[in-house]
Amino acid sequence: MDVKKLFSLEGKKGFVTGGAQGIGKTITKAYAELGADVAIVDLNLPKSKEAAEELANLTGRNVTAIECDVSNAESVANMIEAYEQEYKTIDFAVNNAGIFTGDEALDITPDTFRSVIDVNLIGVFFTAQAAARLMVKHNNGGSIISTASMSAHIINKPQTIANYCASKAGVVHLTKALAVEWAKYNIRVNCVSPGYIQTELIASLKDLLPIWSELMPEGSRLGYPEDLIGAFVYLASDASVFATGSDLIVDGGYTIL
């Protein structure tokens, strides 16, 4: 068995939502470095174009930007049409776009609660569905990977993010349901549940960083986007052909205490 070929993404094509920055950009870069052509799907088109140009120049792969509001079904339909025109077929889809708010449950408004569910859960379904339909159309199977969170398994503190926890728990169970439905099409559906990852936003919450660190196993640390590369590469590559309905928790041990 050629292990390097097993983990290679040479010749594969797909998209990453929320790919203009943070975790999404890191995943896109890793996939392109391993030989994949990748569309960055993001609401922020200027930032997406900037990231796509940067990564295309860096890796020599076909990395492009497509504007999309994942919470809007029409926008997702337009996105997958634009994707198909550029890439024809699809081998992987990473549903990574997500948001959170810090409102306490007693104070949160209906619109604010729905905004997180719309992006984090409904948006994941819309983009997963669009990718699966394209995979079925071309009868080539593929891998669908969603970014869930350790918040699907524990309740974060001291921040108050009930709507975020609910949305990410939904992603984990949605992943399992889609894995069962789509196995007959040779489509694998899995998710990754990161712990605290120091993206630009998380790293700016300086008062919370030491609190979170204290809640982790002694000797562990908060994560960085690069710490998630292995999980996302495994699930997109042929190394994971026997994995579906799985939720990989990558959290430095936070949830085991």
Describe the structure in your own words.
The structure is a single chain. This protein is an alpha/beta fold and 257 residues long. It has a single domain, classed as NAD(P)-binding Rossmann-like Domain (Rossmann fold). The chain is 45% helix and 15% strand. It is built from nine helices and seven strands. It has a seven-stranded parallel sheet, sandwiched between helices. α2 packs parallel to α3. It is globular. The termini are far apart.
Could you give a short description of this structure?
The protein is an alpha/beta fold and 257 residues long. The chain has one domain (3-249): Rossmann fold. It has helices spanning 3-7, 22-33, 45-59, 73-87, 110-138, 162-182, 200-203, 209-214, 229-236; strands at residues 13-17, 37-42, 63-67, 92-95, 142-147, 187-194, 247-250.
Q: What descriptors fit this protein?
A:
single chain; 257 residues; alpha/beta; 7-stranded parallel beta sheet; 9 helices; 7 strands; 45% helix; globular
Q: What's the arrangement of secondary structure elements?
A:
Elements: H1 3-7, E1 13-17, H2 22-33, E2 37-42, H3 45-59, E3 63-67, H4 73-87, E4 92-95, H5 110-138, E5 142-147, H6 162-182, E6 187-194, H7 200-203, H8 209-214, H9 229-236, E7 247-250
Parallel strand pairs: 1-2, 1-4, 2-3, 4-5, 5-6, 6-7
Helix pairs in contact: 2-3, 4-5, 5-6
Unreliable sequence segments: none
The CATH class: Alpha Beta
Helix content: 40-55%
Integer count of domains: 1
Cα-to-Cα separation, first versus last residue: 38 Å
Strand neighbour order, sheet with most strands: 3-2-1-4-5-6-7
Anisotropy-based shape: globular
- Indicate the CATH architecture: 3-Layer(aba) Sandwich
Give the biggest sheet.
7 strands, parallel
Structural class: alpha/beta
The sequence of SSEs as H and E is HEHEHEHEHEHEHHHE
How many β-strand runs? 7
